[in-house]
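Fold sample X.
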Amino acid sequence: MKNILSAQQLHNLAMNIVGKDLEDQGYEFLAVNSQLKKDPQFVALKNKKLHFVIVQVISYPDDPNFFDVVFLETIKQHALKFKAKTFYAPVGLANALDYELPVTSDSNYVVNYPGIKEV
């Protein structure tokens, strides 16, 4: 039986994708929050500068290149209080066999991750 991934499981998958990317870019994690709707997900240092990274899962057919400007501006204002830069990390996920089907625990998936974007 195919187990459809829950919203939290999809979020955790996206967190792993973004976390690996941040590690590869030399970020040092100060805090990681993998709870849904608890932002930012990553508080990290790079070159002695503080960074807030918001991770969001985007399901097909939505485009990960579009984002909620008002929401991200709220996070950005919070980050400025800590003299931190704010980044958005959208992760598009889809079932590899059929984009219209949900992502399951026993199927391959396609990732559309354009990287982190400064807000």
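Fold sample Y, listed below.
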Amino acid sequence: MEYEAVIGLEVHVQLNTKSKMFCSCGADYQSAEPNTRVCPVCMALPGVLPVVNIAAVESAIKIGLALNCSISEITKFDRKNYPYPDLMKGYQISQFDMPICNEGWMDIKPEGEPDAHIGITRVHMEEDVARLTHIEKPLTTPGGKSAHSHTLMDINRAGVPLMEVVSEPDIHSAAQAEAYILKLQNIIRYLGVGTANMEEGSFRVDANVSVRPVGSDELRERVEVKNMNRVRAVVRAIEHEIKRQPEVWESGGRVEMETRGWDDVAGVTIVQRSKEEAHDYRYFPEPDIPPLEIDPRWVEEITASLPEFADVRQARFEDEYDLSEYDAALLTASRATADYFEATVGVRDLSGEERAAFAKESANWVNGELARLLNAPEGPSEINDTKVKPEGLASLVAMFQARTISNAAAREVLEEMWSSGANPDSVVADRGLLKVSGTDELLPVVQEVIDNNPNAVEDFVGGKETAVRFLVGQVMKATRGRADAGVAAELLTRTLEEVKAAR
């Protein structure tokens, strides 16, 4: 029997607000000493009252709008009860039946598969939990007892704002899941509301996976896979479940509804516990936080402030600057890179074909040499942190486009701009990098090269016209790459023809 995968993703997005979700403690837990970003609210001491972080609410609205959701005019918080050791209060303040964002969608372009339309069930707000570190080594407790393992708790993360984005079970392959995750990460970064880095725990994905016979519309028992800290891990875990579950059904067994963890080394999912349902959490309205009324005028203001997202910007770059799909996709993968590119193109007041040509050359340098420097281990990772400013790159591109400097010279200039922030015109002047293209300047060099390479001259006279390429290389070497190769080839050919005719 042929099976179809049915996948829904739950993505927790950590927001980069300055303070926590329900108190004024700093949310910069990763750079802080353990247990230094705490207060009575974080620690769930008796009698404390939570206060909603308005910046977190605004970020949630932005995410919802970017995912084409409707924004609730009234939203409320609920208590989600479960007895985990990293949950300070014994419950989590979350949202259940009245989330802030409802019924959205996202269009994706999975690699090697047709485009897909994925529904978004909801986006809701909640708080993060404390951080547990499990240590496997002998420990002597204050009471004198020994233990072979122990767990440390850091409360700094408790209360940091989270958004949970829940998709409909519209995903049917690992490739679709990957495209969905990557696009959601891109949206979060374009909005500037979070880093969306899985490796640091600010973007966590849980995958609900089931299979059913192809052609069926039933929803069979699903498993929820957790403990995936990279996009590749999510893909591998889904692929494993898509293979494992049909084998269970075909053997006469039944897939149990359970939570499974992903073992990245073994490449398998492992049972953790039976899967909870909503009633297991005993949701009830948070009595200390009244329902929030969201003014539609505020939503309109937030809507007007949203950026142009990557897919729309990519299409515009292809149309407006006549860029290839590949180049436009690279430029718009990061909002900072796209902004940098447009700032570079905007330095020169060009229009029509001249503007398109300059944009293409600028894209080549941003996606090529500048990207190479950015990806170097010792370099900054963000384009805005470099010493190469858009104005400087525009000047360099203009010189290279006019062929007043060679490709090798342009790379040399960029290296100096990268290290010192120098003006490209000054670097070219100080190092004498302007291209030599005048006949009066090049002809003596050409004659010297011909005199110093009699074997190549004989090859040309004997009919080997490819000897000219070797001699052009010698001219370039003699001028330290400053000679115009086309002019040099023309002068060499003309002079060699004269030698040949004289024989």
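Sample Y note: Residues 308-431 form one domain.
Also: The chain has a mean pLDDT of 89.
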